[in-house]
Task: structure prediction
Amino acid sequence: MLFNYDVIVVGAGHAGCEAASAAANLGCNTLFITMDLTKIAQMSCNPAVGGIAKGQIVREIDALGGYMGVITDKSSIHFKMLNRSKGPAMWSPRSQCDKVVFSLEWRKQLDKIEKLHLWQDSVTELVVSHDRVTGVKTKLGLSFSAKSVVLTNGTFLNGLMHIGRVQLRGGRMADEASYILSDQMRELGFNVNRMKTGTPVRIDGNSINFDILEKQPTDSDFIQQFSYRDIELSVQPQRDNFITYTNKTVHDILKSSFKDSPLYNGTIKSIGPRYCPSIETKLVNFADKDQHQLFLEPESNTNNEYYLNGFSTSLPLETQIEALKHIPGLENANITRPGYAIEYDFFDPTQLNSSLESKILHGLFLAGQINGTTGYEEAAGQGLIAGINAAKYCQDSSPLILTRDSSYIGVLIDDLVTKGVDEPYRMFTSRAEYRILLRQDNADLRLSQIGVAIGLLDKDQSNSFSSKSVSIEKLLDFISNKKFKSEILNPYLSSIGSSLISESKSISDLLSRPEVHLELFLPLFQKMFDSLRLESSVTKKSVLQEVEILCKYSGYIARERELADKATAFNSLSPSRFSDYSQFTSLSYEAREKLNRYKPSTIGQARNISGVSTSDIDILVMLIQG
Result:
């Protein structure tokens, strides 16, 4: 039996959901295949979205027309704006979500999309004709044809879980893994490697002594939405997180079973995340520390399970239980699910173009952990771009390529395809050289025009973003050019203990002071501000916040924009006409080897390849121009 589609998306995790919805919303008849339709967008690890640099990615997804921010807002039960004590380039929103609601809301969203067909099955094989993918075959013996295919299999490719010396095959606890497909990909020429990740125990909240724990309440004084869109929210009841700590006794118990830890007894040989280490790794790498901070985070309002953030482990179950007895607040804890490690296959992302299309098979796109990344947000960002470009491939349109100075998603994809991975890739603000430009507050201003242009944002959303942009310009002009006498401004300055002035100044002049904030002077421009007719309190707050940031950090922003513009000039130069760099003996041997391996499409990409020096780049530019 044969069924015909434009796009097929395999795997209904966070990458798959964004990919399938984007492709279908762009007009492609899209088939979405997953093993279990009751577990769409399952939050297999911590049910949280956002965090350092990750929050920026979620807002970028929203600005482009994806859904992760919308779904997060509908399911959030605890919100934090991280790094508020630092500059705005470091601010990052994070929401603890009700994982049951999160999955249900994604299913509701997918069911609304007209050209999207859901199918429960397991893909076992790609259908290939010459150097092009033409469809998939499934475990049920069905064949589906398509012009493009997006693989977002996550941890399910040859997944193997470890709890002490116990091994279980599966993509996550209680779910079977996907086999055979990795072998076919290897035969087709893909480099297949193994990675590992882990998750901690889940604890019955009824067995936790919250009275002795440090409470971490949700933020109530900051913008509590990821999505820039004017959506109607049914706000979930908010929950507190709680903080506790390990101690020397806990450490001794854990260390006593290291011989049974697959991470240390040689059972697991694959590479794991450096920045989200297991508790075993923490004890080895930070042997001088007598305690480690742990966070108890609720998983849902529909059940009483808590996630013990900071306690990922693959130690035997009895060791996990014994160690918990000595953690404050968890002396009588009942475990509902053990912590475990999981190994899985991934494919070398340097075998992809910047569109996330395979260099080996035309029409095949890869997104998510299958590319060696970790995290829901990194997966969703890739999924959105893969889905957009899979649709564009069907429509014979040029792919969407996001640059490093336009988005964290652009940084993420560029890092993957030019540098590859030697550990599960996790996004950090430090990876973005233009992070002052790529703030969480301005993702809509950076990317919404792209979302409108490609067709994922409708006219109302376009008008809303345009209105906000115009309002920012008008307010910025007002506070920069309108001068106020000292006797008008000084009472405001005096009220916060800031130095008084002796001459007329604009409000923007005073915003250079760290203690001065724009809202302080709101009475002076309230009438003008009201005339902007902004639609919601969230939008009003975001306009004030954006204008203040533009004033306070104008020098830094201008300097970074200048650097980004210079780098853009490199991206206009392409060495792609060179099929073999071995002929250019003026290049270093390592540069020739790396350039032949990665085949960069621009000089900008070549600059990011490890082993290609500045002098190599200068030579390449001369070769292109000469």
Notes: The first strand starts at residue 2 and ends at 4. The chain has a mean pLDDT of 91. The first helix runs from residue 14 to 25. The radius of gyration is 26 Å.
